[in-house]
Hints:
By secondary structure, this protein is of the alpha/beta class.
Amino acid sequence: MKKMLRAAITRIRGVDFEREHQEIKNINTKEELLEFQEKYLKNLLLHSYQNVPYYHRIFKDIGILDNGTVDLSKFNEIPILTKEIMRAHHKELISKDYKTRKWYYNSSGGSTGEPTRFIQDDLYAKWGNAAFYYWYKNILGVNEPSVKKVILWGSERGIFEGGVGLKAKIINWLTNIIFLNSFRMTEEDMKRHIRIINSYKPELIRGYAGSLYELCRYAERKNMAIYTPKIVVSAAETLNNEMRKKIESVFGTKLYDYYGSRESNNLAGECEEGLMHVLIFHNYVEVLNNHNQLVKEGEEGRVIVTNLHNYSMPLIRYEIGDIAVLGPEKCRCGNVLPTLKKVTGRITDHFVKEDGTIISGSALTLTFNRKDWVEAFQIIQEDYKNVKILIIRKGDVNESEKIDIEGKIKFLLGQDCRIIWEFVHEIPKTQSGKYLYIKSLVWR
Length: 444
């Protein structure tokens, strides 16, 4: 009964992705994958030339079309689309025929600056859902829509309006979802979250990496048992090794990382071998160095994304603001999708020196590893020479460890770096409920 109702609701909401999933589920070779990618990339570029003023002008200048045929060899001549360009040419990036589709507005979170607004549509949503389902079904072996799941997610609405509406509750019931608000997690909230998890016994738990980590630290600190699901999925925030170890240890199961964004939603998902498989059914992804050249396997670069299915406002070679390490073309898990070794975070999760050197956020967070007097922290690069550290402390500060932290940060950023410590009762999360360990204002 539930399955039938779920299928009916899916059709009514216009997000049924069965046709899209049928098209991709049996792609098993690199040749089939490249054929699919070429087909949809050419279709998108042709549509953009004919309907999007910004791209019509650019494609004409570089000659990417020859007698109506798309020349993909000139794809890398398309200028990188940045958030600044998107804001400056917003109207020119909207397709002239967008009103013929079921379109809607979306925006980036704006956690490190001005939010970016864009248009998406039902076709984009269907392919995004198909890619999401493919990862769960074909890589993790989980039928995501039907399994019992708890989602630990940020939601301002849940705080300020006291919950979700009746429609959302019905959909959550039909899809076996219990949402737990992680925007604000007091000790009482976390105690209640654990009680709900233990009672519901979900097969899948998904949440912000930081929220899962906080919950596991609380459970360990209070010596509270927590139900072991089949898998745990972290998303939306950068996951470091310390967080992964803690989450897997407390839940007693394997954690899989998932990579997405507001602009291009489902980008990549981790497999059992620890590599992130790029869901190129939905997005064509490039990893480029500072000279806009493709990096080699094992090298770190900027993530550049072309969504293949958002015809209402195509984002072609869009610099999404993330940094990743390119993985091997072949993975031992056997899946044909290309890989990333890891996503090292938002550009703003990294510090930058005056000479342009990028300092990994992971290297900075490691300075706080195993510091018993630190409950929570945030390191903020205010400018090239000034760093502020927000600390929620527990107990007395270990002065020798504090000096050691300052020494390591100065080793990374320069001996003339000025470090300001600020002890606080709370570290604000972003509007969407994310917890930032590293925050660079220089990248703005």
